[in-house]
Structure formats: structure tokens, C-alpha cells
Amino acid sequence: MRLILLGAPGAGKGTQARRISAELGIPQVSTGDILRDHIRRGTELGLRVRGYLDRGDLVPDSLILDIVGDRLGREDCRAGYVLDGFPRTVPQAEGLEALLERMGQRLSAVVALETESEALVRRLSSRWTCAGCGADYNAMAAPVPDRCASCGGVVGQRDDDRAETVRHRLKVYEEQTAPLILHYEGLGRLRRVDGLAPVEVVFRAILATLG
Ligand code: AP5
Predict the structure, then answer these.
(1) Does residue 160 lie in a domain region?
(2) Shortest CA distance to 40 belongs to which of 158, 206, 164?
(3) Which of 62, 71, 99, 164 is most buried by a 10 A CB count?
């Protein structure tokens, strides 16, 4: 199964990708997680991309395509993967198509999580993340602890989850990523799921679209 999860910031791509990964036994490939890991480790790539993430702008396509090319070429991706946060522009989608052709692979499906902006601003302003293991806490669902229940790490808010940065990320999504919906619809690959439903309902709906 080679699956793309498309959706605005906060639509639930990461939440659903983790569940699909566990259910289907395929890795979650999140470009956002890979970039944040480089920033945390202070690598050269991390230093180059930090400003883009802090502002809520997209990292240049060429850097992202190099990262994804490297990741999808690894052994654990042979049987499939779920792409979370990639592609995000039409050139990235075209780059992915070229990469898949070189690897002799085909996409299985593209699932779009449909949402609306105000709900996403609320979700992301309430999201807290463990600095140690990346566990997700959301103040709308339950009180957020100071320390992570899984690893004891410090729980804090992502710099780009401040309300004004979230609004900028949503604008960037509308301008640069939303056109991918038409792109994949035109290729006959798109399936739509209501991303505002409860997490479990969204998960079941995604599995149902995969047949
Ligand atoms: P990235 O990390 O990909 O961020 P994003 O797309 O903005 O996605 P989020 O992680 O904010 O949201 P999500 O859709 O995964 O939602 P989640 O499941 O966490 O990218 C960050 C930055 O990296 C970008 O701005 C850019 O700079 C750079 N970047 C990354 N990829 C790039 C690329 N390909 N090209 C260029 N630049 C790139 O859920 C959000 C919250 O809502 C959580 O608290 C969750 O618990 C809650 N929630 C989820 N689902 C539900 C539900 N159904 N009901 C209620 N609450 C829910």
C-alpha cells in the first residue's frame, strides 16, 4: 500500500498516518517530522530549514524531494508507506511521480481529509507535543500534563502552532497545496474523507476507502 494523506495543517494527517502505519504495518513518512528531527539535532539541513518552519513557509521543493527520495529508497519502504505532509506542491507531486517511475512503483491511493479553517486553528492552538518522543496531547480532549506520560519528556507547544503562524500556514496551504486535490482528482486517484469527524470515525472511513 502506497498512500498519500492530503490535508491542511491540523487536518489529522499525522494522527491518521500513525494509526494506518500500525494497522497496515507500513512506515509513516512525515516530512515535517524528518525536518524537525534535523532541527533538533542541529544538522546542516536543520539549520537551513529552521526559518521556513518557524515562519510557516514551505521548504524548497528540491530539498524536500532529496529527503523523500532518500527515505523511500530504504528497505522498510519496500512493501509500502503512508506519506504524511508530502507532496505539498504540484512540483513535489510531479517529482514523486518521477521517483515512483524510477523505482517501478505505483501509488495506491490519495486520501484528502476535508476540514475547515476555524476548527483547525482551534485544534492547533490546543495541541501540545512531547519534546522527547513527539507524543501528541490536545487540550480540547483532556488536560495536558507538564511531563509526557510515555517518556517523561517536557511537553510544550510547537513554535509554528501560535495562532498567527497557523493562519499563515493555512494560507500557504490554500495557495500551494490545495491545488493538489484537483491534480489527483484529474488522475482519478482521489478519495475524500470528512476530517472533522472523531478520530476513530475518520480512521474507519479511510480504511473503507482503501477497500
Ligand atoms: P508538518 O509537520 O507536515 O505540519 P502540518 O502539515 O502543518 O501538519 P500538522 O502536523 O500541523 O497537522 P496534521 O494534519 O498532521 O494534524 P495532527 O494529526 O497533528 O509541517 C510543518 C512544516 O514543515 C511546514 O509548515 C513546512 O515548513 C515544513 N514542511 C513539511 N513538509 C513539507 C513539504 N512536503 N514541503 C515543504 N515544506 C514542508 O492533528 C492536529 C491536532 O488535532 C492534534 O492535537 C490531534 O490530536 C488533533 N486531532 C487530529 N484529528 C482529530 C480529530 N479527528 N478530531 C479532533 N482532534 C483531532
Answers:
(1) no
(2) 158
(3) 71
Query: Bridge partners of 190?
Result: 110
- Dump pLDDT digits (tens) for 7-24: 999 999 999 999 999 999
Threshold 0.85, pTM exceeds = yes
Can you tell me the distance from the alpha carbon of 45 to that of 71, in angstroms, rounded to the nearest whole number?
15
Does the active-site annotation cover 171?
A: no
The per-residue pLDDT for range 155-176, each reduced to its tens digit, is: 999 889 988 999 999 999 999 9
Residue 84, strand partner residues:
5, 30
The answer, yes or no, to whether any atom of ligand 1 lies below 6 A from the CB of 71, is no
* Residue 50 bears catalytic tag: no
Residue type, 192: R
Total tally of structural domains belonging to the chain: 1
Q: Which domain holds residue 68?
A: 2-115+174-209
Query: Which residue out of 19, 71, 127, 191 is catalytically annotated?
Result: 127
| Cβ(15) – ligand 1 distance below 6 Å | yes
